[in-house]
Each structure stands twice: as structure tokens, then as C-alpha cells.
Amino acid sequence: MREEGPFEIERAARALNEMRARIKSLVDDRTRMLAAVGHDLRTPITRLLLRAEDIVDPALRRQFIADLRNLGGMLESALSFLREQSVRSEVVKTDLSSLLQSVCDNFADVGARVDFVGPLRCPVDCDPDQIARAMTNLIENAVKFTTERDWIEVRTEAAHDSLVIVVADSGIGIPNDQIPRIFDRFARADRDRARETGGTGLGLAIVKAIVEAHAGTVEAESRPGMGALFRVRLPGLQPARPAPPAVVDVPEPVAAATTRGLPAG
């Protein structure tokens, strides 16, 4: 707030600015502390994984390794969430169609049926790394709740002063009572736990953080018996306009200049 105006207003604005600075410093310190603790936990988890290989009982060994890998996955998800909240977006000119096609191809390479439907080229100004991360998380979520017979489609749609990216699938869908909290941190569907598909409930929270960093919104729809649909709306993310062609003074051809005024033949 601007610290100007009458004495009482100026003093109140100064107090609010100081309070904001203290709260921001507190949050930043907590985030750095959690990130440091999470980073330091990687080493003992790796050591425990190596030592678990020496367990003689095969069933017990598998249980130990599964729990440790689950713990490592939870740690990586938490660190990723902290990184997405602390890293600033670097907006560059990006071919969104090429980026989305590349993300879909990565899943197709491991056997998932993921198709991209959109224009051949769609140049936009955005942070390509974060948009790719958000789309990867959405597709990973769709893969967990689909089978080999189901399909996953990623497409772009033009809307008024915005660009919409749709991720749809033909899987089991989302229970309607869980849609309002599906983007909350550590929120996991009951079916997710029942099927033991893994995850920590941070994937969609990261998607929301990335989209909001681009001043956009993300919403989910449940289609009973027809899967789920996620719609990412990015206001202002219109196709980038190409730079106007430079005006260059073309010199008159030498031949024309030397023959001007001479008789033909």
C-alpha cells in the first residue's frame, strides 16, 4: 500500500506493509526449512533401500522396499509442490501444440493411449516448463483411472480472450461429492486408496498452483460412465502475434542503373 495521505492513513498503511513483510518472511522461512528437511531425508531413505535388499525373507523385503519407495514418492511430491510455489515463471514464446504433443508422446511411449487434437502450430507466450508439468500431472491422473481399453485426449479450444486446454478420458470418472476438494492439498479419492494406485494428493494441487501462476483457472467435471474432464482456462494466453516484417531499403539493381538512358541494342 502507498504510505501517503493524512497522518492516520499513512501510519495505517505503513503498519499493514510491515505486517505483510513479516508474514511473507515467516512463510518463506517455513518453506525453506521444509525444503531443506525434505532434501536431507533423501540420503537415509536411499540407505534404507540398499539395506532392505539384505533382508532374507522375500515377503518382508518386498514390503520394506514398497514402503520406502512410497515414502520417497511422498517426499518428491512435497518437494515438487514447494518448488512450484517458490519458482517464478519465465515467460517465453512457445509453440503450445508442439509442447502438448511432446507430453502426449511421452505417455504413448510407455503404452498409454493418449492423443492430442489441435492445430499444427499454436505460438503463445507462457512458461513452457510449468505448463508441461501441469499437463503431465493431469495426464498421469487420467492414466491412474483408465485401462488399456480407455482413451485419453488432450485438446485446445479457443475462447473469448483466453485459451482452454482440455484433458478428457473415458475412465471410471470422479465421484461428484469429491470434485469440490479434488484440487486441495493431500486430497485423494477413496477409489485411489482402494486401488492402491499410489500418489500423495499433491499432483492436482501442483496443477492448480501452476495455472493460478498464469492467472488462470482449472476445473473438473465428472461424466458418469464416461470418465472425467479437466478444463484449464488461461486468460490472455492468446497466440503470440508475429513481429511485423522489417522495412528494408532495397538498393536499385546495378544492371538497371548502368543501362538506364542507353539506346536499346
CATH architecture of the largest domain: 2-Layer Sandwich
**What is Rg?**
27 Å
CATH superfamily of the largest domain: Histidine kinase-like ATPase, C-terminal domain
Give the helix/strand class: alpha+beta
Shape: globular
Strand portion, in percent?
Answer: 15-25%
User: What level of helicity do the residues show?
Assistant: 40-55%
Give the count of helical stretches: 8
Task: Considering the chains and any ligands shown, give keywords for the structure.
Helix Hairpins; 7 strands; 265 residues; five-stranded mixed beta sheet; single chain; Heat Shock Protein 90; 2 domains; 48% helix; disordered C terminus; alpha+beta; two-stranded antiparallel sheet
Structure description:
The protein is an alpha+beta fold. The protein folds into 2 domains: 7-86, Helix Hairpins (Orthogonal Bundle); 92-235, Heat Shock Protein 90, CATH 3.30.565. It is built from 8 helices and 7 strands; from the N terminus they run H-H-H-E-H-E-E-H-E-E-H-H-E-E-H. The chain has helices at 7-40, 42-52, 58-86, 96-108, 128-144, 190-195, 203-213, 254-259; strands at 92-95, 114-117, 123-126, 152-159, 162-169, 217-223, 227-235. The strands form 2 sheets. Strands 2-4-5-7-6 form a 5-stranded mixed β-sheet. Strand 4 and strand 5 (162-169) form a beta hairpin. The longest helix is centred in the N-terminal third of the chain and has 34 residues, at 7-40. The protein is globular, with a radius of gyration of 27 Å. The model is unreliable at 192-196 and 240-265 (pLDDT under 50).
